[in-house]
Amino acid sequence: MILENAPALAIGIPLFAAFAVFFIGKIGKRAMKAWVVAGLLAAEIFVIWLTMDAVSGISHFYAVGARFPSIISPGGFPIRIVLAADAASTLVALVAMSACLLAALFSFSFLKEKNAGEKFYSLLLLLSAGLVGLSFTGDFFTMFVFLEVVSISSAGLIAFFREEESFEATFKYLVLSSIGALLLLFGVGMFYGKYGLLNIGAIAALVAVEASFIDFAAVALIASALLLKCGSFPVHMWKPDVYQKASGIVSAVLVASGLVGIYVLFRILFLMLANTPLSAMIGWVIAIFGTISIFIGVTMALKQNSLKRLVGYAAVAETGFVLLALGTGLAAITTRDIFSFKAVVGGMFQLVNDALNIGLLFLVIAAVAFVTKKKKVGEVNGLAHKSPVLAVLFLIGLLAISGMPPLNGFASKIIIYESVYMASPVFSIVGILGSIMLLAIFVKVFVAIFLGPPYKGKIEPLPKSMLLVMGIIAFFILFLGLFPKQAIEFVFLPAANALVNSQAYIGGIL
Amino acid sequence: MLVAGCAITIVIVYIIRSKGSNKHKNSGEQAMSFFSGNRHPDEGIESENLYWGFFKSLEGYYEFMKKMHSGIVNDYVFWLVLLAVVMLAAMALGGIL
Predict the structure, then answer these.
(1) How many angstroms separate the Cα of A217 from the Cα of each of A180, A183, A214, A463, B84?
(2) Do B77 and A176 touch (CB under 8 A)?
(3) What are the pLDDT digits (tens) for A217-268?
(4) Which of B26, B46, B83 faces A235 most closely, judged by CB atoms?
(5) Do B86 and A285 touch (CB under 8 A)?
(6) Which residues of B touch A287 (CB under 8 A)?
(7) Interface pTM, i.e. ipTM
(8) Geometric angle at alpha carbon A103, from A97 and A108, rounded to 5°
(9) Pick from A183, A305, A444: CB nearest B84
(10) Global confidence as pTM
């Protein structure tokens, strides 16, 4: 019975925990921490269970509010909020929920000094509910609502530590998110005006038979809003601005938030365009955006003095890799070539790797700031003498993000290079150059912070909770790098299949 | 295979480590950093200077990027509107072709 309601519970539990955390916080700090971990862990368990089911071929399509919904449309689908938990959406939800859980564990020692627990955890729980909701949602209006939940909670987290510059970053984020949400709402309104529907599967089924320019214009507006959310060229500029000013913990979660945006974008594009000649045009446009994102990301990262801003640009480049792979997959979907599917597999793999690699780098930066008590991590050097563990963890992160074997970045990027090369050698070459430049960028950073004469300042011991979280991420980076075949077969193939196979999604909802 | 690989790696690391000098001191000249054979100046050369040639040859590109990344939210909104226009144009063009 409980497991039947898993899609709703995975959203509902953190949502409830977000509001109740203020009351639990009155009992004491320990109770509050236990409550936050319990809420996130319970939701994580439901998402893991749904993922296990989905990768073994059992997708869950859930109509909120009734086991057998009595109000059915003439088209035969339930007129309720529909949640779709297939292999693609559960994988993305798992990434998002894991990022929030690990961020919460990491922040325990960090927030001790700031004395601002309840509000931070409430926003984090709200963000996790929004991200899982955004991954599972099967209708456009709920998508809009969850997008707003994610934007507002993210804005709260960015500004949380109330430093002057973080307000500026929050203002930019809020303005852009609001305009993006309006574009999305306008697109949804166009669909509603034409079909009188909000259910994504039902609209996709109708678009497949009676598509007109109004449908494609609606998709274009929704896609623009989601490209903004994931930080693609030419709307990537907010990303380094925000990542630089937000805390490292918040930035690590925002990376996962951007990746959910990519998933939602491609879910809609594959559903609405896969059976139309427009898939090639839009696929190539997004692949070009991805390639330019890689180039701009790495060239701008090379010039940065601020470490967090540098990682922010690297995150733009990494987003570019996912967009390049999935865009190529969409472009070639009508020809049904094997490389197009392979590109989608590589894209889904890279999506998970982005969250791990960039997340680890941001957390190491946050840990360096914590142990040295320096606001500007760039002022630190020779830290490897006093904290070799942080040096090793940073090294793992930098080698993984640069696509060096035997780490996870290599496993996913080699699939992307191979498959994209079949479609466009130029894009593939830019991707390879991007990876090489990422290595050049992060080696410079590694040498600057960790090598050289021993760090002269005093350092605090690294808290165990921080070490545990970074250790878990490093373990998955190594695991996915050493056993990519098993990971691809077990997780990424079913996820790519679910994303590409629009008929299974539409059939599940209708 | 994996175990053998790990064992070989450990042996190689051990051999390299055993070649190291145990006379190293953490003070004096041995602990100083050098830049092209000279004492590293305290100011003037930073890690960003490492790629000076790259930045010099791409000066025009970086000037354009500087304007694009102005930090002003109005400019960012302009790029968002431009993106929406490009997406709409791509849809229209794809429909015609």
Answers:
(1) 15, 11, 5, 51, 10
(2) yes
(3) 999 999 999 999 999 988 999 999 998 888 888 888 999 999 999 999 999 9
(4) B83
(5) yes
(6) none
(7) 0.90
(8) 135
(9) A183
(10) 0.89
